[in-house]
Q: What sequence folds into this?
């Protein structure tokens, strides 16, 4: 059994599958998060109540967070392994390399957008998760942050980066699951674009909204 | 003149092979691992033989010149492979495939060999399907067949225009499996430099590692050459750059007889000559002739673009001359007629050495989509090379040297006159007579490799036993010395002409005098010219070294030495055969309508030549051919 | 057909004397190139000149020169086999270039491909992958009648699409990760689609994958460059099938190395 598991997860397709599964989970999480964010448009009280409610759902809340953390770490770890393995697979670079087609900005920048997203997530967690919310509730903290156009700009840029990451990641995970068919792949590609835009714009617009109402 | 014995088993034709299989010795599975076999070449015949013998338990060492056994030139065969399955329910049978092949070969092949070929043809299809060769299929899921190159039944199996590729990859897969099993030791990028013979038995080979130039000795209990044909003697041919005669030529110089060297096939549907730097001619499957119509302008001076020439100004010369076969006449007939039209000044294209192959009618009849599905890849290839669209304007085609029916003489067991030396596929002379039918080369290669050699090799080894001559013995050391000195000699000349340059010159002589049509004066000129070129070569060639690196021009120089010798032998053979048959047309033996006239009284035999030394004329041996089952008739495709 | 023309070009070409040499680029002007000649014929033409000038010719792999044997393969201006769609470099013609062009010519590069000489590389890892399972294990003789098992035409056609792979290794050369997934998937997919190949589908996919990883190729990250660079236009749908077959085999199949 040992050899079996090791082989599955250390093989190149196995790693890819892990990347895809965790990526899908992360997109799922983003969708939930985005849904939660909509509460912000209902005003401070609604949003703060929602946040409080969410945090009170124990033990599910902790289990969920640990799960999410694990998924995130696996995604990062495998991503890092893939990055270095792929770097090693061509020790001498080409003098000239052209894209004959296929490669997109999103696909080319996956590891880099990944790192930027990681930095952003850490910063985001420090800013809004691991803070004392007993004195100033979360909505008020958020409103205060996004009254600063600098923060807004940073968040918007971060969301553009996330969008690029998803623009490749979304259809790519279908391909990895083996779902590629001339009839459905164009649909998946289109759906990918929609997901990319919804997540990018959906998250990006909240800071802008908060800036405007500030 | 000595006669040769083909060792054809007795009994009725249809029973010869089965009886012979019963009569031959067997080697039991446990003992097979005591025996080692060398296979040179990994085309259909070589790969099939290596895999089959290894599966049986022999220790096989396989050599190929390419970087991978998958790249042998069998891969370029497009059209298909024949078998007498009669899936089309149109009256085909083993007997009919046999008769067609004997007739197609213009009665210059051994009946017994051809019959065996037709017999095993069906096993080949079964074997390939089991290997996962994706043959074309009908909607119901059964195998599709088409009529091909002069056959009046649909017996050709195909995988788009890549049949050779798919069959070879099937055999390559089987070979790869044996490599993984450790039963075959594979030597890629290795060229055979010499055959080691001692005590009249083949003992092994000398091979050169092309990457570092090292010469290696390999001993075995039997040597199988499956090294393909020698069309590259014409310089421009449809063969791959590395195709050469050297392996079988070294065997010839060690005493193996070379049979019917002048029997070459000129394929009618090659792309025309377009540039002075051209290094090869690209073949297009002659399946194109199923739907394309061949024509030239009626008026020799007509230089207008094809589409400006109206229907009544076109001469569909094949349809006119051969009403029942039309554009599907055999290759030699189609090639010769095309050349006649060009010689009469009716040729088209920039060089005037091309005829049109027109799909207008087929596109009108079946629609562009159907034609594209059948020939799309060929049309794309044409468009890419010629820069012209065959859907809009007729293709231009011209005959090109393509296949050589001649090769080392072998008996019914595919063993040459040197015991322990077997020759398979295009490298031997056995099954196609003076002309090969379309889709028969793949059949022969696989028949030899999968279904003949496994039996006949056991028959031989059962009698002869192990060779017991090791690589440290004098015979091997002498051969290494020979190969070494040849390389050193080549590098030392340091003249002013490249190998390519001299090869081009040889090619022109071969094409002019030993090509589609031959006559006494031309052949004598050719012999003289080749001798001059050979002298020029040894004085004035410039070969870049060093020998311990991969150096293609050094390899080519070695091959050119042998091509020069072979060219001369081809001319000698053509001169000696004062008849026309199949691909060999002597203009002295040609009817007024330009048809080949055979001389069965004097030439119903195989001419096999034996090497007598550097300066001496080769000796002629003859194997008389008896036609007991198919009546000798003059071919007619009218 | 266009008129005969000649052009003058400059080659910036990789030269390397054997696997141990570090190698370098050399700039060589080539005058009077016939535009009707192929790219490789241009190199032949240059080599003849180099030989007569007592210089070492440029070695490059090539053989059939009609795009089917898969021997040739070099990077031309940063693209394997050059910029022609669906063709090998032996099918690339000089009319695709302009007078005065500088053309950068490099060998295929990947950790798994060692340079042998100049533009030639050793692609034997691809052989090893096939040896690990790129076949149907049937011995010669004893096969049932060819029509014993019907195969749906669409499956057979799709298998043929995959089987069209010529093994040139351009997919590896073009992949930013030097992954061999397209090559391997073509074989896996061909046999997965045919009933004849199903019998050992599980072991095949796992063994071939294991060998592929062991050879030092990179990982597929779905850039799709391979598909665009493939001279036979083998589609990445075969990679998807490979992934699917892997999933199936790893969930239900027996492991090649035992469990």
A:
């Amino acid at each position: 059994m040992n050899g079996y598991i090791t082989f599955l997860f250390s093989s190149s397709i196995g790693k890819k599958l892990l990347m895809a599964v965790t990526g899908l989970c992360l997109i799922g999480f983003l969708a939930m998060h985005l849904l939660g964010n909509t509460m912000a448009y209902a005003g401070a009280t609604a949003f703060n109540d929602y946040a409080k409610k969410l945090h009170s759902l124990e033990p599910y809340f902790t289990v969920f967070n640990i799960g999410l953390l694990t998924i995130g770490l696996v995604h990062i770890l495998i991503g890092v392994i893939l990055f270095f393995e792929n770097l090693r697979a061509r020790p001498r670079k080409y003098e000239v390399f052209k894209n004959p087609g296929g490669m997109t900005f999103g696909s080319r920048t996956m590891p880099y957008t990944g790192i930027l997203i990681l930095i952003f997530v850490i910063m985001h967690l420090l800013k809004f998760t691991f803070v004392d919310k007993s004195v100033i509730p979360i909505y008020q903290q958020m409103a205060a942050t996004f009254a600063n156009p600098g923060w807004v700009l940073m968040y918007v840029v971060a969301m553009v980066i996330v969008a690029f990451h998803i623009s490749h990641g979304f259809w790519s995970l279908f391909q990895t699951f083996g779902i590629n068919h001339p009839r459905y792949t164009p649909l998946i590609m289109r759906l990918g674009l929609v997901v990319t835009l919804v997540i990018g714009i959906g998250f990006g617009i909240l800071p802008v909204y908060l800036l405007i109402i500030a | 003149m000595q006669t040769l014995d083909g060792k054809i088993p007795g009994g009725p034709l249809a029973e010869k092979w089965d009886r012979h299989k019963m009569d031959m010795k067997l080697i039991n599975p446990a003992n097979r691992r005591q025996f080692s076999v060398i296979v040179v070449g990994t085309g259909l015949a070589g790969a099939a033989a290596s895999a089959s013998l290894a599966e049986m338990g022999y220790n096989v060492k396989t050599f190929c010149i390419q970087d991978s056994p998958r790249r042998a030139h069998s891969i370029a065969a497009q059209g298909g492979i024949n078998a007498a399955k009669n899936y089309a329910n149109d009256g085909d049978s083993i007997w009919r495939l046999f008769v067609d092949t004997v007739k197609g070969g213009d009665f210059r092949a051994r009946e017994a060999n051809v019959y065996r070929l037709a017999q095993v043809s069906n096993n080949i299809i079964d074997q390939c399907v089991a290997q996962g060769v994706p043959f074309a299929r009908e909607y119901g899921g059964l195998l599709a067949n088409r009529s091909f190159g002069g056959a009046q039944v649909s017996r050709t199996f195909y995988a788009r225009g890549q049949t050779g590729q798919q069959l070879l990859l099937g055999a390559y897969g089987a070979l790869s499996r044996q490599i993984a099993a450790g039963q075959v030791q594979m030597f890629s990028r290795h060229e055979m430099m010499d055959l080691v013979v001692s005590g009249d038995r083949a003992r092994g080979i000398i091979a050169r590692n092309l990457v570092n130039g090292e010469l290696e000795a390999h001993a075995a209990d039997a040597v199988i050459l499956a090294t393909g044909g020698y069309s590259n003697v014409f310089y421009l041919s449809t063969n791959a750059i590395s195709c050469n005669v050297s392996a079988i030529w070294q065997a010839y110089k060690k005493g193996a007889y070379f049979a019917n060297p002048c029997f070459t096939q000129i394929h009618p549907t090659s792309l025309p000559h377009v540039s002075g730097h051209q290094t090869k001619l690209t073949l297009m499957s002659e399946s194109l002739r199923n739907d394309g119509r061949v024509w030239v302008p009626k008026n020799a001076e007509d230089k207008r673009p094809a589409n400006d020439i109206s229907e009544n100004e076109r001469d569909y010369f094949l349809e006119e001359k051969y009403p029942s076969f039309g554009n599907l006449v055999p290759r030699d007939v189609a090639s010769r007629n095309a050349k006649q039209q060009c010689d009469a000044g009716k040729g088209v294209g920039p060089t005037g050495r091309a005829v049109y192959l027109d799909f207008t009618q087929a596109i009108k009849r079946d629609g562009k989509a159907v034609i594209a599905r059948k020939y799309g890849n060929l049309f794309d290839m044409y468009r890419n090379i010629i820069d012209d669209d065959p859907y809009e304007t007729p293709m231009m085609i011209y005959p090109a040297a393509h296949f050589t029916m001649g090769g080392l003489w072998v008996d019914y067991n595919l063993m040459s006159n040197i015991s322990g030396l077997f020759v398979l596929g295009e490298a031997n002379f056995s099954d196609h007579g003076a002309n090969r039918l379309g889709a028969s080369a793949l059949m022969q290669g696989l028949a030899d490799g999968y279904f003949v050699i496994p039996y006949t090799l056991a028959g031989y080894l059962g009698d002869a036993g192990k060779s017991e001559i090791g690589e440290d013995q004098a015979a091997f050391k002498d051969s290494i010395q020979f190969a070494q000195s040849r390389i050193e000699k080549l590098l030392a000349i340091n003249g002013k002409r490249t190998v390519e340059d001299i090869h081009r010159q040889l090619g022109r002589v071969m094409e002019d005098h030993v090509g589609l049509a031959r006559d006494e004066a031309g052949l004598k000129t050719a012999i003289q010219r080749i001798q001059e070129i050979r002298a020029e070569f040894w004085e004035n060639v410039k070969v870049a070294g060093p020998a311990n690196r991969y150096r293609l021009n050094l390899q080519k120089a070695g091959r050119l030495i042998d091509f020069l010798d072979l060219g001369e032998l081809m001319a000698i053979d053509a001169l000696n055969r004062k008849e026309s048959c199949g691909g060999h047309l002597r203009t002295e033996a040609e009817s007024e309508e330009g048809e080949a006239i055979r001389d069965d009284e004097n030439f119903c035999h195989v001419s096999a030549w034996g090497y007598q030394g550097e300066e001496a004329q080769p000796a002629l041996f003859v194997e008389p051919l008896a036609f007991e089952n198919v009546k000798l008739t003059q071919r007619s495709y009218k | 057909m266009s008129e005969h023309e000649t052009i003058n070009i400059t080659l910036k070409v990789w030269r390397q004397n054997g696997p141990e040499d570090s190698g370098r680029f050399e700039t060589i002007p080539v005058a009077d190139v016939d535009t009707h000649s192929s790219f490789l014929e241009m190199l032949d033409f240059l080599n003849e000149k180099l030989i007569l000038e007592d210089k070492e010719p440029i070695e490059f792999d090539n053989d059939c020169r009609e795009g089917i044997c898969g021997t040739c393969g070099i990077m031309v201006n940063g693209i394997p086999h050059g910029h022609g769609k669906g063709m090998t470099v032996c099918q690339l013609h000089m009319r695709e270039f302009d007078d005065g062009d500088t053309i950068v010519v490099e060998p295929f590069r990947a950790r798994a491909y060692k340079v042998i000489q100049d533009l030639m590389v050793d692609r034997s890892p691809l052989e090893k992958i096939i040896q690990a399972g790129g076949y149907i294990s049937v011995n010669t003789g004893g096969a049932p009648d060819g029509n014993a098992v019907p195969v749906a035409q669409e499956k057979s056609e799709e298998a043929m699409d995959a089987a069209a792979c010529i093994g040139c290794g351009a997919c590896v050369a073009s992949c930013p990760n030097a992954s061999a997934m397209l090559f391997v998937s073509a074989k896996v997919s061909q046999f997965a689609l045919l009933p004849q190949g199903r019998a050992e589908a599980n072991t095949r996919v796992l063994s071939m994958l294991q060998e592929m990883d062991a050879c030092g190729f990179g990982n597929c990250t779905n850039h799709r460059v391979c598909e665009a660079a493939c001279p036979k236009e083998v589609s990445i749908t075969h990679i998807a099938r490979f992934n699917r077959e892997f999933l199936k085999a790893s969930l239900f199949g027996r492991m090649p190395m035992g469990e």
